[in-house]
Amino acid sequence: MPGPSISASDISRLGSRAVVWGIAAIVGVLVLTAVLLFLNLPDAGAFNARVERVFVENADLTSQAEIKLLEILAQSGTAFSETLVSYRIVIFVLLVFATGLLVTSLVMIVLLITLNRRMAMVEKQGLQVSQLVIERATNSVAINDMEFKLTPAAVETLAVLAEARIDDEVLTGAAIEAVISGRLEVDCDEAAGATRIKRLRDTLGNQLISEVLVKNIARQGYMLAIDSKVISLR
């Protein structure tokens, strides 16, 4: 009896739910922290209430010095209240910033994990090319929805590899150099063709595309790791 299987869509849904629950947990923890923190902060009007109580309980204080002291206490209470209000604002801003930072970090970690998995799949299965168009006249190459401007030598190298892929052939470095230079293969150096492949990869720029698109088969040569039906030479 076959065991239960999990599809890619199920994994994707589980990952999305994990992200949502992770974000909700972060926000919940920070909200709870903010509530507890604000509840335990002293009341901004506590000092003024104590000063007012002093005024009420010491109504017989009538000398100039005593009145001045009470005024100083009242001003201190107002300053204390304003300081507490500013502290509350600062704490609130810091909590909002921390929430945004943690949520962004979680999302970025999930995106990096997803990207790494996709790159691993590409490296394992090969580049999924639905269309490869080589324009010799404009020295440009279109791979799926990406367009590259190449040098004439790089375009010629890629065109030779494309024609070989259509014929289901693997070309050595010497064979590539022979086709491009028009000389006999025995008169060409393997290193010359390898140099052309390296320059092609350098021109493509994107290491993932260049390394996966142009395959190096040990002791056989080079070939394009794509379906010959998607190749178009112009």
From TrEMBL:
InterPro entries named in the record: OmpR/PhoB-type_DNA-bd (IPR001867), Sig_transdc_resp-reg_C-effctor (IPR016032), WH-like_DNA-bd_sf (IPR036388)
BP terms from Gene Ontology: phosphorelay signal transduction system; regulation of DNA-templated transcription
PROSITE patterns assigned to the protein according to its UniProt record, in alphabetical order: OMPR_PHOB (PS51755)
Parts of the chain that traverse the membrane: 18-39, 89-115
GO MF term (any one): DNA binding
Domain OmpR/PhoB-type positions: 124-226
Residue ranges the UniProt entry marks as DNA-binding: 124-226
Keyword DNA-binding: yes
Protein name as annotated: OmpR/PhoB-type domain-containing protein
